[in-house]
Each structure stands twice: as C-alpha cells, then as structure tokens.
Amino acid sequence: MRITGQETTKNAQRPEKAARSNEASRTKSPEDIENSSEVAAADKVELSSQARDIQRARKVAQDAPEVRADKVEAARRALQSGKLNLNGQDLAEKLLKDILPS
Q1: Domain that holds residue 91
Q2: Rounded Cα distance, 72 and 89, in Å
Q3: Is 58 a domain residue?
Q4: Tens-digit pLDDT profile for residues 18-31
C-alpha cells in the first residue's frame, strides 16, 4: 500500500484524539436526554424509600416560605409589649444550650 499526496495526512488524527472527539460528540446535556426518544422503553429507575423520603422533605422545604410571617409578627408584638428579652448573654446561652450536647 502506498500513500501519496498531502490531502491524506491533513485529515488524519491521532487515535487518542479521535476517541476524545467522538466522546465529546456523544455527550448529551440533560435537556437533550429528556427530549430524546433514544431511551429504551425498558429503562426503569427505582428509588429506595429513603430517597423518596428525601425527595418529599426537599419538596416541603422548597415550598415553605423563607420568612414565617406568623413568627415574625408574634416576635414584633412581644418586643413592643416588653415580653421579648433581647439580652445578648441570655440569647447566646440558649443557642449554645441547643447546639452543644448536655
């Protein structure tokens, strides 16, 4: 076999580079996969009960408001009436008591 001419060497790639370029062209984004009809009908994902619990907890946390208006209003009323203790020392002690084991 004889190879002649420049055209044949210009298009040649080293094998490791060809493999990487093929891998990159085969990689799909999550959106491409969701919109793709290439997924076989027999493909199936089954989540453990712990994974389902985590999904439910995440959903509840995401749906919860960032600011609990009822708690804020109760604190505002307690502050205005003088029933809310804003002593920094007391607050620090309560926080540490909750965080540190007994």
Answers
A1: 47-102
A2: 22
A3: yes
A4: 555 555 555 666 66
Length of the chain: 102
Distance in angstroms (rounded) separating the CA atoms of residues 73 and 76: 5
**Residue 65 falls within a domain, yes or no?**
yes
* Tokens, residue 97: 């008591």
Residue 72 domain flag: yes
Dihedral of CA atoms 55, 99, 68, 75 in degrees, nearest 10, equals: 170
Q: Residue holding tokens 């420049």?
A: 6
pLDDT tens for 78-97 read 989 988 878 888 888 988 98
Domain count, the chain: 1
Per the listing, tokens 């609990």 go with: 68
What pLDDT does 36 receive? 61
